[in-house]
Design goal:
single chain; alpha+beta; Cytochrome p450; four-stranded mixed beta sheet; three-stranded antiparallel beta sheet; 13 strands; globular; binds protoporphyrin IX containing FE; oxidoreductase activity, acting on paired donors, with incorporation or reduction of molecular oxygen; Cytochrome P450; oxidoreductase; Cyt_P450_E_grp-I
């Protein structure tokens, strides 16, 4: 993965040190922040007011577009001219190595083919469903139940969901359970080292010039020293994961690592796979679910409709929805899509033009220019969604009760085209399973009410200040009869 998941690499990309146009002025002086809560809200505003739906931040050498024709052009038609490029892969190279997120060309092609074969099968999807259901049943719901109705008990739902998705992606990817969401909320050295390593890697992008972090790395000082130590810990833990998997046996196992072990013995390659998949499946899902529950709390009428739909599909004596039942819930599916329209976990994603080019809207792109498509802004474009684009309205995705998708180039929350997310179906299933299980059993109330969500800079959209909630139980269910193993 590259710094697509990062919202702060601006200074790093600076091509011109000064430009006097209004946009660059506002960017350089941060005066945009007087009016907007988030940089992505300011960009959305600029893109909404641009006739071509494309803008230029000259000081960053960055062309930003919310035009679906441009997005289709760069992600599909002229895919080869818009690779991730060297600037991003250098920044995340120490952490991600040559993992799928961080490479272009043949190396990417090879990993993509192998990974899509593994992730595309029905058997792996139902394997993932079993993992997610067990984590919900034995950890997530008992944890929510343990605080429900307790005077003054406030839970940071974002932190809970990060632990939830970390357990799931580790179990799915390596068949090993870090147990982060146990009732005691234990410290996980792996999760912590991983957090620090991603944070510091993204922080490299904030250096005034790449030379700054490169010199710090050369002399092993400051944040680079910390990053090296964090990556060292991640490496040790990733190797331990691979060792354990080997010891426990992998030939008959269903997890992703076992499947890759069957085709390669290259330790470094396996390490890069381990890291890439944690990054792919953890923060994205946690971010998407955090925003979803914020929207449920601020739009209770939608939560009611999800419960109504589930009551029609799930039998009265049945506790959890089956894989097939989750697939039948069209309104829920629409609500999840609608939530990621307004709050995509990956708010923008950049590529670097290999050669001079002209985008479909007539924008000239000079070789080497950073070209960014912006899912966050695209979800807020009147030209794409109509005058009610700022309203949270799952119904916009339904026709006669059935979910109707739009072109992925209008809704690139999972990217689109040649490099579309490989975990999309799995992520949607995970989100829907959590949503329906939690909403049927609990009411989630916000501690702080605000009209908009704010985001911290980082590799994915993390809600600033977390999501403090108070949980109340709608109906009691007997605790699970067996313990989790
Ligand atoms: C709501 C959750 C998720 C969202 C919004 C999301 C979004 C994305 C995006 C935007 C990309 C493109 C990144 C880039 O190329 O710069 C991507 C790539 C990818 N995602 Fe996801 N993702 C999610 C969950 C997952 C999960 C759960 C998995 C794995 C189980 C996964 C596996 C991957 C992989 C392997 C790629 C790399 C594809 C390639 O480069 O060819 N994703 N995802």
């Amino acid at each position: 993965m590259e710094v697509v998941y990062c919202s702060v690499p601006h200074l790093f990309w600076r091509k011109k040190f000064w430009c006097n146009c209004d946009i660059c002025n506002s960017y350089l002086t941060s005066s945009w922040s007087l009016e907007f809560n988030n940089l992505c809200d300011w960009y959305s505003h600029l893109l909404q007011n641009s006739t071509s739906q494309t803008i230029h931040i000259h000081v960053l050498g960055n062309t930003i577009t919310a035009n679906p024709n441009n997005v289709e052009y760069m992600l599909k038609t002229q895919f080869d001219n818009y690779p991730k490029g060297k600037p991003f892969s250098t920044i995340l190279g120490d952490l991600l190595g040559r993992g799928i997120f961080n490479v272009d060309g043949d190396s990417w092609n090879f990993q993509r083919r192998k990974a899509s074969r593994e992730l595309g099968t029905i058997s792996i999807r139902s394997y993932a469903f079993e993992i997610v259901t067990a984590e919900i049943r034995y950890r997530l719901l008992p944890l929510l139940s343990s605080v429900a109705g307790k005077d003054g008990a406030v839970l940071d739902l974002q932190e809970v969901l990060r632990r939830f998705s970390f357990d799931n992606i580790c179990k799915f990817s390596f068949g090993l359970d870090p147990g982060c969401l146990e009732l005691t909320l234990p410290i996980s050295h792996f999760a912590d080292a991983f957090d620090l390593a991603t944070k510091l890697s993204a922080g490299r992008a904030m250096a005034a010039s790449p030379l700054v972090w490169k010199i710090k790395r050369l002399f092993n000082i400051g944040t680079e020293k910390m990053l090296k130590e964090a990556i060292g810990k991640v490496d040790i833990l990733a190797k331990e994961v691979i060792r354990q998997r080997r010891k426990l046996g992998f030939s008959t196992n269903q997890d992703l690592l076992s499947r890759f072990m069957a085709i390669t013995e290259d330790e470094l390659y396996l390490r890069d796979i381990v890291i890439s998949f944690i990054l792919a499946g953890r923060d994205t899902v946690a971010s998407a679910l955090t925003c979803f529950f914020w929207l449920m709390a601020t739009h209770p009428e939608v939560a009611v409709k999800i419960r109504d739909e589930s009551d029609h599909i799930i039998k009265p004596n049945q506790e959890f929805a089956t894989f097939q039942q989750v697939r039948e819930m069209h309104y829920l599916h629409a609500a999840v899509y609608e939530s990621m329209r307004l709050y995509p976990p990956v708010q923008f994603d950049s590529k670097f033009a290999r050669d001079n080019d002209v985008l479909p809207d007539g924008t000239f792109v000079k070789k080497g220019t950073r070209v960014t498509y912006h899912p966050y802004a695209m979800g807020r474009m009147e030209t794409i969604w109509g005058t009610d684009c700022m309203e949270f309205m799952p119904e916009r995705w339904l026709e006669n009760g059935a979910f109707c998708p739009v072109s992925p180039f209008k809704y690139p929350a999972f990217q689109a085209g040649v490099r579309v997310c490989l975990g999309k179906e799995m992520a949607l299933m995970e989100m829907k399973s959590v949503a329906v299980s939690v909403l049927r059993r609990f009411d989630i109330n916000l501690v702080q009410w605000g009209a908009m969500l704010g985001f911290d800079p980082g590799l994915t959209a993390t809600v600033r200040g977390g999501l403090p909630v108070v949980v109340t139980e709608r109906r009691k269910i007997a605790p699970p009869s067996s313990t989790y193993c």
